[in-house]
Amino acid sequence: MKKEVQLDANGKRVFGMRDKVSYAAGDLGCNMSFALKSTIMAIFWTQFMALGETLYATLLLVVQIWDAINDPLLGSLFDMDKRKYKRGKFKTYIFIGAVGLLFSGLFFFLPIPNAPLAARCVMFVLGYVLWDAFYTVANVPYGSMMSVITTDGAERSHLSTWRSIGSMIGNIVPMVLLPIICYDASNNLKGETVFIAAIIMGVIGLACFIFMLKTTTIRVEESSVKISEENKKFNVFKAFGNFIKNPPAIGATLAAMAMFIGMQGSSTATTVLFQSYFGNAQISGIIMLIGYLPMFFFMPFITKIVNKFGKKEACAAGAAVSVFGALLLFLPLGNGIAGLAGYVIAQVFFGLGLGFYTCVSWALMADAIDYNEWKNGTKDEGTVYSLHSFFRKLAQGLGPSLVILIMGALGYDGSLKANQPFWVAENMKWLVAALYTFSAVVMFVSIAFIYNLDKKKVTQMTEELSARRAADVAEVAEAAQVAQVEETVEAVSEAVEPEVAPVDGDKQE
């Protein structure tokens, strides 16, 4: 017998596990495409497609500029679209983006290394721009769709958690499997295999999106939700003024930039390290997974750790552990079993420390916004978040481009593929160690010495803000009550005031 579907007061299916799994599938679909680009892109274009390090870094920087303006631009276009769609605006745009991701991904990874250089450059720029545009078309309304699935805060928290689960699966599985299947026995990238992987992952991603669209229940009127924030005026001078006077915001932002420059910037150098130094590119994804495992181990305990020690204290201690892990990479253990084992141990310590910051990074920014209200009387969350996001994007764009240029200066030649001279491979080892150390040290300094909200100060800030807000509410209520009393007195006075008849001398003749 078919189970009866429970409905809410508005006749919609009651929120439950189906919504959580469905929403997780959406980010799984997004990351099927994103993980392919982040894991394989640099090696595919510098080694297989032979763009050259300087040219690749230049083109990457150009397309990253587009990436910085892509989200707000397309978000505004979504909001201006007032047309009625059969399946709703959110689902319609997500479907268009999902289909576009499949075909733009295939175009971006077309294995034609013998095409003219100009054609390859056009392929890179056009393919990246199209991929990024379709990713935004799918991902921005997907993120905003949480607002039309439910209005309940607890249910939205569940959706956010399950979105993170979908994201992690979508990132980790390709990170581990792609190196295994896309590198040959000589540690060279198989471009044709990358194209096949793009087809398979694109189809899986599209299937995940379609599943989500078919199983998601919209419970809120779509027209009531804004995707972009185009109505809020952004004053860049005011933003910078607030930002430089907000040590917590500066500290949290510098930590985020260091993480992106160190981790994402080093990804290509790490691949070359496994190709030419350890001589086994296929295990690189597994080693990276080992670095993530400590974070998964203590994630269930992060709330208890933060409640006991404080966010700043936990992150600073974690960053110190990451510094220790990064310094282990400088040990001269060679490229044999001992060297590989040392690299794994270093990754474990680095990942353990990084996990603290990763779990509470957005909570640090929330406290930074409260700090602005505490010191200046206004939250200004829009300006603070805008600057934080801008600098994060800047690090994501500049990091990989600059590191590719540094790799070229250290002797890396993409045309040699996995056959880099040993001195170049050894340079990659030192470069990876230096990038990890830079990342960890800047994170530690930013959190320990610039971010000035320790547990005691956060408690003080929270109590004073709560009292101030309660006083403001009471003042508003008192003013409203006084106004209401005055209005009542005036109404009563008008009601009981006797009508005065004119005297005879006042009558007109």
Short note summarizing the structure:
This protein has 17 helices and no strands. The protein has helices at residues 17-48, 53-80, 89-108, 117-144, 146-149, 153-182, 191-215, 236-244, 247-264, 267-277, 284-298, 302-309, 311-328, 337-376, 381-409, 422-450, 455-496.
Structural class label: mainly alpha
CATH topology of the largest domain: Growth Hormone, Chain: A
Continuous helix count:
17
Helix content: over 70%
Low-confidence stretches: 228-232, 505-509
The residue-averaged pLDDT reads 83
Q: What portion of the residues fall into strands of 2 or more residues?
A: under 5%
Q: Please provide the count of β strands.
A: 0
Overall, the morphology is: globular
Q: How many separate structural domains?
A: 2
Tell me, what is the CATH class of the largest domain?
Mainly Alpha
Based on the coordinates given, report the CATH architecture of the largest domain.
Answer: Up-down Bundle
- Give the radius of gyration: 28 Å
- The CATH superfamily of the largest domain is known as MFS general substrate transporter like domains
Alpha carbon gap, first and last residue: 95 Å
The description of the largest β-sheet is: none
